[in-house]
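User: Just a sanity check before I run the rest of the batch. Below are the structure tokens for the first item. I only need the designed sequence back.
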């Protein structure tokens, strides 16, 4: 897979540190993300992947570090320097966040259509017919029967819920989506279908994404580049195929070889 060309990073992450009491969860994590690029963050359980994602997405404040986001006007925005209201606006317009557990990212008791339409309403769309038509269109795009538009997601299967969560996030045409283990916990065949869909959507929409996964196969399939984390540090980063085919750091070598063993 080729990395998309662009002049300046969409997101620059520098020196992120986070402690929980005495425990250091993140130490000096830095990387750039380019427009339209999919970046996988991999590492074993407890290596700090989710902490990093939540810090970058301004969902929990780090102890140190900075995140700069390049807005649609080309101006760099200092994410941690924003007010909470500005961060919330960014989170529901140019950014999306797909949770591992779809119930954390959906409103389980309201209809699928309302779940998809909510972010559009947040941007000022009030026309019922247009909201419903867009919700229908997005249900189709994520392969949910539009006849289910008035059903609540609690009546959906795990795979459908996850696809609905994706539609809810993508309806505002964000430029960056954060995903925390978006396919884990699903059956293998459901996972494969979801991965295929994510791959198509990220390409069609030229969407940049940061995907936390412990599954190197997910990284291989979706990501242009990857960063490998061990005990809160980024120990290796590079093009996905290069890192997986020729890992340089002993920890990455161990991760790759443990997957290859029968
Ligand atoms: N709220 C919290 N309070 C205290 N310690 C935490 C908290 N959240 C995470 N940690 C600790 O921070 C470290 C990094 O956790 P994190 O959840 O980021 O890892 P991870 O790589 O995402 O793991 P997993 O793949 O299991 O989700 C771990 O040692 C974890 O125990």
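Assistant: Here's the designed sequence for the first item:
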């Amino acid at each position: 897979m080729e990395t998309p060309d662009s002049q300046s990073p969409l997101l620059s992450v520098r020196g992120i540190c986070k402690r929980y009491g005495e425990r250091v969860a993140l130490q000096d994590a830095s990387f750039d993300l380019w427009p339209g690029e999919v970046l996988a963050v991999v590492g074993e359980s407890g290596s700090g992947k989710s902490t990093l994602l939540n810090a970058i997405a301004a969902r929990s404040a780090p102890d140190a570090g900075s995140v700069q986001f390049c807005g649609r006007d080309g101006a760099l925005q200092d994410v941690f320097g924003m007010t909470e209201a500005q961060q919330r606006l960014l989170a529901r317009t140019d950014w999306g966040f797909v949770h591992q557990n779809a119930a954390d990212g959906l409103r389980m008791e309201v209809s699928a259509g309302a779940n998809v339409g909510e972010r559009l309403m947040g941007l000022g769309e009030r026309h019922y017919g247009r909201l419903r038509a867009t919700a229908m269109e997005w249900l189709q795009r994520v392969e949910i029967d539009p006849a289910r538009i008035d059903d609540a997601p609690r009546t959906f299967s795990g795979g459908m819920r996850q696809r609905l969560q994706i539609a809810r996030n993508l309806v505002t045409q964000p430029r960056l989506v954060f995903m925390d283990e978006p396919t884990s916990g699903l059956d293998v065949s459901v996972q494969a279908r979801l991965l295929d869909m994510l791959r198509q959507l990220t390409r069609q929409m030229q969407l940049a994404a940061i995907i936390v996964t412990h599954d190197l196969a997910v990284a291989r399939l979706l990501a242009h580049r990857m960063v490998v984390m061990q005990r809160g540090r980024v120990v290796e980063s590079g093009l996905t195929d290069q890192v997986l085919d020729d890992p340089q750091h002993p920890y990455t070598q161990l991760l790759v070889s443990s997957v290859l063993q029968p």
